[in-house]
Amino acid sequence: MGIFGVFGRNGSNWRLKALAIWNLIAFSYFCTLTSVTTYLVLFEMIPFIFGEFATSVMKHDIFTCFILLQVVGNVVLVITTDSSIHNLPPLWNKPEIRNISSRKRKTTDEQKKNLVKISNQSVTRRKDADKNVNSSSAGTPEMDAKSPLHSETEEINTTVCDSCNALAPKRSHHCLLCNECILKRDHHCFFMCTCIGFYNQKYFILWCFYMFIGSFYSLVIIAMYLKKYFNISFGMFSLLTLLPNTLYGWWFESSVIPYQLLIVGVFYACLTCGLAAAGFFYWQLYIVLQGQTTYEAWKGILTYSNSEMLCNFKDVFGPFWYISIFLPLPLPQKGLGVY
């Protein structure tokens, strides 16, 4: 995790270090809650609730393991997938295009103009080559207008980052915590200690979806367990009264054992996480269909949006979106997030 670099980086102020610590706390909270909830649901609650029905136990175990696989798998993919400008295609890795200076110094306006000029000349030559090749042998795979290389260089959509001293596609933004430019940066996720960008946004969205499903599934199982094990009934206002009554009984009357307090605490933690995951999932799916990032949605920017929602959806989830929904796999994705 690049977040650890904050503590040893020159120029990191106390605010940045505090945010880095909060990152680690949030990530630890997620790992702890996921582990504790999975253990309780799999090995304590499901056997106790459905112990008399072996088939029901097996079905619930399979479903729980499936949700766990999706949650953990997509978290791993979010963290390990590089969405920074270091993951750019070979065309962008040319020294005269990618790096402004080998020295760590601020880029001047003159250097920015020169570098954009170099990029313009490079693309102009490629366009001329496209015309020549198309006139003699139209449709060849190397220079076909539909090839990924052509689509990535057809328009000049670049920006210069003073912090990275590098040229990057537009919609890239520098993250102070990650200390690098992120392609089509949406936000920095504190629960995963990394930025959400072009190449890992689909995994983040799927993580939100399965966290939402898993959290509310756990809520149902925990409610059934509380009713059967502790004889706690649920009514219209139970969500408002369960926690206060449990704390009161534990602190003042000693009628609540610590184990019951733990189960009730996990119940409310799952409720909170489920609502948060549902909110994140709704928002992410909305901006994906609109072809926007969170920043662009706030500013009302629609420059990079396609006219069709399905195209916007495929730009994020890739051509194999129907596989990634059910299997957390590092499937290929085309483009740079600049349309």
From TrEMBL:
Superkingdom field: Eukaryota
Query: Carries keyword Glycoprotein?
Result: no
Q: Where is this region: Disordered?
A: 122-150
Q: What is its EC number?
A: 2.3.1.225
Q: Which family does it belong to?
A: Belongs to the DHHC palmitoyltransferase family.
Query: How does the protein associate with the membrane?
Result: Multi-pass membrane protein
Q: Where in the cell is it found?
A: Membrane
Q: Where the protein is mainly located, per its record?
A: membrane
Provide the GO MF annotations for this entry: protein-cysteine S-palmitoyltransferase activity
Keyword tags: Acyltransferase, Membrane, Transferase, Transmembrane, Transmembrane helix
Q: Name one GO cellular component term.
A: membrane
Record's Pfam families? DHHC (PF01529)
Its taxonomic path starts at: Eukaryota, Metazoa, Spiralia, Lophotrochozoa, Brachiopoda
Q: Where are the transmembrane segments?
A: 20-42, 62-81, 204-225, 232-251, 257-283
Domain note: The DHHC domain is required for palmitoyltransferase activity.
Instruction: State which gene encodes it.
Output: LOC106162773
The reaction(s) catalysed by this protein are: L-cysteinyl-[protein] + hexadecanoyl-CoA = S-hexadecanoyl-L-cysteinyl-[protein] + CoA
Give all residue intervals belonging to the Palmitoyltransferase DHHC domain. Answer: 156-299
- InterPro entries assigned: Palmitoyltrfase_DHHC, PFA4/ZDH16/20/ERF2-like
Report what the protein is called.
Palmitoyltransferase
